[in-house]
Amino acid sequence: MAEALRVGIAGLGTVGASVARLLATKASELTRQCGRDIVVSAVSARSRGRDRGVDLSGATWFDDPVEMAKSAPIDVFVELIGGDEGAARASVKAALDAGRHVVTANKALLAKHGVALAEVAEKKGVLLNYEAAVAGGIPVIKTMREALAGNSVTRVFGILNGTCNYILTRMEAEGLSFDACLADAQRLGYAEADPTFDIEGHDTAHKLSILSSLAFGHRIAADDIYLEGISNITQADIRAAGELGYRIKLLGVAQRTESGIEQRVHPTMVPTASVIAQVHGVTNAVAIETDILGELLLSGPGAGGNATASAVIGDIADIAKSRPGFQHGPVFGRPAKELAPYRKARMRSHEGGYFIRFTVHDRIGVFAAIARRMADNEISLESIVQHAGGTADAAQKTVILVTHETTEAAVRKAVDGVTKDGHLIDKPQVIRIERAG
Ligand code: HSE
After folding, report:
1. What is the pLDDT of residue 323?
2. What distance in angstroms lies between residue 205's CA and the mean position of ligand 1's atoms?
3. SS3 state of residue 431
4. Which of 308, 321, 398, 387 lies closest to 356, judged by CA?
5. What per-residue confidence (pLDDT) applies to 43?
6. Is 112 a known active-site residue?
7. pLDDT at position 276
8. Tens digit of pLDDT for each residue in 267-317?
9. 162 Cβ closer than 6 Å to some ligand 1 atom
């Protein structure tokens, strides 16, 4: 049998501890599949004493993950520290420089430094595997990088944050408050260390930037993503969506348009009957539309220790199965140096349907004024509804519009116009509608 693959794990939080436990409990199965043992020979974490449910006494302990990356006797450095700078970045760079394979679940690091790190990995001829960084346990990176060879992607979109989907699902199903659902997501280990990363859409944007690069062959452009989180979604929006035949999801969408690549993250109305609308709780889903295949939808557990660990272990096993002289594919599907510059489409040119909710004074002419602003901006309405009992205050009414396909620029102008007319009591709510099968 080939020599054992020696693994060093940096970071023993929810995911790191799951990886260590699964490598121990699944050891003989992995050996059978990979043709060699996989052993944890070094670990690094902040707290040495904590019980992680696995015996790590055979591994050398490093207080400093960078030192471990540089000098531990390991073949693979597994980075589960998190964060786009500091120890995570320094240790991954050190491991690649030292010619060691790297496995990481760190989407923030890849979103910011992925191309530079890929260049180092490709120069050194080692693997930089990151399946766990996008959509938890769903094997979307392998699918896009390997299984879809030859396909041209036109749009990739999905539910990429388990915490947000968990919150929206429970708000809709149980009428619970946003805060109560977020607290449960944190307790269950789905949320990021700073949950604003989840709820304000940054985590989804990091993952989307990686998918977009794989889909369209451009350099990762995580700072150029249109971003809106879910913290302003109310029960009123969720109920109105339901009445109109939609469900609200936080989607990340990247699509090729005539003016460039559109990357956007925002709460989105999807038809209740669509497949993606059936994706509940912490489950993630990624839809990939291509010229050859049509639409592919992958769904599965998107967050949590075991889901993420499953993808990490798959990446480690790939390295264990690889042999010297084996030509590794490039990290982002094509050589990092050949990734094209990102050509950004302007958000104002985005085309689609819109849901708009106005809270207005109940007086003559308001409804007509809203309709006029829409017509002035050439927005065709699919429906316009005034709720008799829209709010607790009888002097207020809720007006809900659903538009046919129009542009972001037209909607912004129309909504600004309605705001200037002085009929609104509250900030207008605008939610984009996404075509989904
Ligand atoms: N906080 C992330 C989520 C974890 O909720 O999806 C997985 O990246």
Report:
1. 77
2. 12
3. strand
4. 398
5. 98
6. no
7. 96
8. 999 999 999 999 999 999 999 999 999 999 999 999 889 999 999 999 999
9. yes
- pLDDT (tens digit per residue) in 83-115: 999 999 999 999 999 999 999 999 999 999 999
Domains of the chain, earliest start first: 5-134+305-331 (3.40.50.720), 141-301 (3.30.360.10), 354-433 (3.30.70.260)
Q: Is the CB of 131 under 6 A from ligand 1?
A: no
pLDDT of residue 61: 96
Which of 110, 163, 165 has the most ligand 1 atoms within 8 A of CB, as the residue to mutate? 163
Given a cut of 50, the residues of the chain with pLDDT beneath it are none
13 lines ligand 1 (CB under 6 A): no
Cα(302) to ligand 1 centroid in Å equals 7
Q: What are phi and psi of 220, to 5 degrees?
A: -60, 135
Binding site membership of 203 for ligand 1 (Cβ less than 6 Å): yes
Tell me which residue of 341, 124, 123 sits closest to 213, measured CA to CA: 341
Pocket perturbation via mutation, ligand 1, pick of 203, 209, 282 by most ligand atoms within 8 A of CB:
203
Of 67, 116, 150, 42, whose CA–CA distance to 336 is shortest? 116
C-alpha 11/C-alpha 47 separation (Å) is 10
pLDDT value of position 388: 64
Length of the chain: 437
Phi then psi for residue 78, to 5 deg, are: -105, 110
Q: Which of 107, 207, 249, 397 is catalytic?
A: 207
Residue 171 CA, ligand 1 centroid: distance in Å: 18
Q: What separation in Å is there between the alpha carbon of 317 and the centre of ligand 1?
A: 23
DSSP-assigned states of every residue in 192-236: -SSTHHHHTSHHHHHHHHHHHHHHH-B---GGG-EE--STT--HH
CA–centroid distance, 327 to ligand 1, in Å, is 32
The answer for residues whose C-beta is within 8 angstroms of residue 6's C-beta and 6 or more apart is 39, 41, 42, 73, 74, 75, 76
- Residue 48 confidence (pLDDT): 85
Residue 326 pLDDT:
60
